[in-house]
Input
Amino acid sequence: MSFAKRILGKANGLAGTVLVSLVLAVALLGSFYTPHDPLKSDLLNRFAQSSLSHPLGTDMFGRDILSRLMRGAWVSVSIGFSTLLIPVVLGTLLGAAAGYFRGWFDRFLIVVLDALMAFPGLLIALGLMAIIGPNRYGVILALSVAYLPAVTRVVRGSVLSVSQSEFVEASTTMGNSRFYTLLVHVLPNCIAPLIVLSTMMFGWVLLAESALSFLGLGVPPPEPSWGNILAEAKAHLMRYPMLGLLPGLCISVALLGVNFLGDALRDELDPKSTTSKEVI
Amino acid sequence: MTASTERTPALEVDDLEISFGARPVVKGVSFQLAPGEIMALVGESGSGKSLLAHAIAGILTPAARVSASRMEFGGVDLAGGSPRARASLRGREIGVVFQNPRAALNPSRTIGRQIADVLREHRGLAGARLTEAVHGALADVRIPEPEMRARAYPGELSGGMCQRVMIAIALAGNPSLLIADEPTTGLDTTTQAAILDLMLGHARERRMATLFITHDLALARAYAERIVVMHAGQIVEEAPTESLFAAPRHPYAAALIGATPADATEVSDLKGIAGSLPDLDGVVPACRFAGRCDRVIARCRDEGPQMVFDAGRHGTACWVPR
Output
């Protein structure tokens, strides 16, 4: 059975895949099409109930909520992916170098990472945002720094353990260079935990971006992100709870999907849980 | 067989010592291996057989220190020598077959690709010729349906199949020295024979010098021309196979042979060897077998016996050989 089939065969894998695909599809659509301009206010039509032209109603400036959520999905998801990319690439490089070549670089890196990990990720991001100022590249940078230690440690750990395998030793006896061995024999066997971590991290980043925007340190308004839509709804929450419920629901659904998918991937990729499938 | 004295040895090891910290684990090991010769290295677990093999293959952990007055293979110094010169031997001139074939193969690469890696590197093949060579290599080690098996991952093959793949990889560079470190441990007896016939058949055919490490004396007897007996990091006896089994001289060699079940032995007839390997952290007697030996004399503890060879190239390191 193929890998995709095994993931979809599980309840959490199926649910996760469906939810994540839904979120990604809405985000992609929101990047180029929204029913209304998500930034255009219509002060005569504030807090409108749902109608044919505004299926989810309008907010305190009369902006179409559906359009804002769709564009917000794109903003949040694109920030999520960009933020994933930097720590994964950089963390893999650093972790592989430290775990494979060891020595002073490894010791130095571990001290720095331990120091960084002593702070909660969001706190580091908050501090950095306060320096950089609220804009979307600041969010990406700040969250990248916050999640770099986690990736580096995971990669370093797997590289360390895979490096001890006999097939790495065997690669040496075949006359391969250390670098080739790292690239061909060590790193590909470290990908599984990295995939699981990335999936989980996508969820954390989505949440952290919302948290930063909610605190006014994320994506600056009027550009919508799920976090700042929620933040703006704060003042009107008692009279118009839907304003806060809708973006909250979006964040929850996305997180739920990502977590389901992450769990399913972990179950499938964890070497301890895979059953041997001999064909001969 | 004794004619091998006249040939230049493929592998020459003289006074090899492998130590961890201040402890010399393998000590004073000397032997020669002629081209085309199959030599078995026997001894109980922990006697330093694998360390020796790893030292020759150049894959000891960095914690181990190797010194030898001479350790040469095809003119390249394996103990000193430049790392580059030594690395150029691996795969091309020295092939290694490991103990645990499943662990020695990369689980995330198909076996076809792993064989292709070696063929590309050492024979410079590419494209359709490479694919053909991979299938040929798999067929050479008698893997049925090579075209299909080439796409399998190690986890999808049995241990015996994995070992065949490992042998194909070791042979791919057409080495002149083959090191087989307990190649059939963990395989069932029938597979064992098939694997050894296959591997050593190739070794004979291509006239490779072969160092066959095993703790199974019966296998050593069946396949090797010469046998080296190791105990606690020292060579205690080295002899042509028949000569060793006919008249073992070192008490340890004799005890090992006595502990091997022959055709019609009752379990009660098997004699164990008393004691265990000496603790290398403590005071180690000069002859490391002294503590377990029934022929021990005072001299054994103070002065290590040297290997003495007779005319039949049967050598033993014992003060009171039989």
Remarks:
- Chain B has one domain: 2-316.
- Residues 2-316 of chain B form a domain with the Rossmann fold fold (CATH 3.40.50.300).
- Residues 111 and 159 of chain B are 13 Å apart (CA to CA).
- Residues 189-205 of chain B form the longest helix (17 residues).
